[in-house]
Write a structure and sequence with these properties.
It is a single chain. By secondary structure, the chain is of the alpha+beta class. Helix content is 28%, strand content 19%. The strands form two sheets. It has a two-stranded antiparallel sheet with strand order 1-2. A two-stranded antiparallel sheet has the order 3-4. Strand 3 and strand 4 form a beta hairpin. The radius of gyration is 15 Å and the shape is elongated. The N and C termini lie far apart (51 Å).
């Protein structure tokens, strides 16, 4: 089976409390899968996703209808 390095150039995590964080390494039962783009900074794909999401959160980029809810 081909390794993940041949299929993914970047990896990231996201959740409700954080925006998007790059992943530099995944360890699977002692086997390390490294993503060079996540070791120092975001790669171009994650950076674009981060910029889009934070732009929508800050209101500088229009969000799709119903994505943003103002809580008073």
């Amino acid at each position: 089976m081909p390794s993940a390095e041949h299929h993914f150039g970047e990896a990231g995590l996201c959740g409700t409390a954080a925006v998007i964080s790059p992943v530099g390494k995944v360890v699977d039962h002692g086997r390390e899968i490294c993503f060079a783009s996540g070791m120092e900074r975001m790669g171009p794909v994650l950076q674009r996703l981060y910029d889009l999401l934070t732009g929508m959160q800050l209101g500088t980029i229009p969000a799709p209808e119903g994505w943003i809810r103002r809580i008073l």
